[in-house]
Design a protein that fits this description.
The protein is of the alpha+beta class and 197 residues long. The protein has helices at 7-14, 27-44, 59-72, 99-105, 153-166, and strands spanning 54-58, 78-86, 90-98, 121-133, 136-146, 149-150, 177-178, 185-189, 192-196.
C-alpha cells in the first residue's frame, strides 16, 4: 500500500519551529537548522540561478534533532520518533504514539482485537521503504509491530494518515508529498540520508 514519506521524516523535521526561549540548541540540531537555512536560501533563488546544495545527515543527527524538536514543540499524537536508516530507501522507525488521541480523532480506527493493547501512549516499530521521484515522496509500510504483535499494514497506514492530518501542516499521506525546499532527490545508505536540490 503506497503512502509517502522519508518526506515524512524530512517534512516532519522541517515542520518543528524552535523557540528562542528554549535552552541551547544541541550541535546536531544546530547543524540541521543550518542545513534548512541553506536550503531555504537556495530555494529563494530563481530556478535558473539556483545554487546546488547536497546534504548528508546521519540517523544519529536526525534522532538528536527530533528529540530536541519534540521537546521544544510537541506534536499532536506523537511522544517520540527514532529512525534507523538502511540502504535502498529503507527506514526503520520506533515511535511512541498516543493511541487514545488517534481513537478520539477518528473513532473506530483501532481494531477491536487490538484495543486492549493499543491504548494510551505505546511504542510501535514501523519499517517502510520510500520512493522519491519528481520532487515528491511516497512510501509503503513493509511491516509494523507492537512489542511482538504484528500490526496490519493497512491499519498502520490509516493511523499515520490520521496523525499526519492532525499536525499543523495537515499532511495528507494518502498521496505523495512534495519534498521541501525544492529538493529533487532523497535516498538512504547505511545510517545516512542524502538529498539534493
Amino acid at each position: 500500500m503506497k503512502m509517502k514519506n522519508m518526506g515524512a521524516v524530512f517534512a516532519l523535521m522541517t515542520a518543528f519551529p524552535l523557540s528562542a526561549a528554549e535552552p541551547p540548541v544541541p550541535l546536531s540540531a544546530q547543524k540541521i537548522l543550518g542545513v534548512f537555512r541553506e536550503l531555504r536560501e537556495a530555494e529563494a533563488q530563481s530556478p535558473t540561478a539556483r545554487r546546488h546544495v547536497s546534504v548528508t545527515l546521519t540517523d544519529g543527527e536526525i534522532n538528536d534533532y527530533m528529540r530536541y524538536a519534540l521537546r521544544t514543540t510537541p506534536r499532536p499524537g506523537l511522544e517520540s520518533v527514532t529512525v534507523k536508516l538502511l540502504p535502498h530507501n529503507y527506514v526503520s522507525t520506533f515511535t511512541v504514539v498516543d493511541f487514545d488521541a488517534v481513537e478520539r480523532w477518528k473513532p473506530g480506527t483501532i481494531p477491536t482485537l487490538l484495543k486492549p493493547f493499543l491504548r494510551g501512549k505505546q511504542s510501535i516499530s514501523v519499517d517502510y521503504q520510500f520512493t522519491a521521484a519528481n520532487s515528491k515522496i511516497s512510501f509503503a509500510v513493509e511491516k509494523a509491530y507492537y512489542d511482538k504483535l504484528r500490526l496490519p499494514a493497512f491499519f498502520v497506514a490509516m493511523m499515520i494518515q490520521i496523525v499526519a492530518a492532525r499536525q499543523p501542516e495537515h499532511y495528507d499521506t494518502s498521496k505523495p508529498l512534495r519534498l521541501p525546499f525544492s529538493l529533487r532527490q532523497v535516498w538512504t545508505e547505511s545510517q545516512l540520508v542524502k538529498c539534493t536540490n
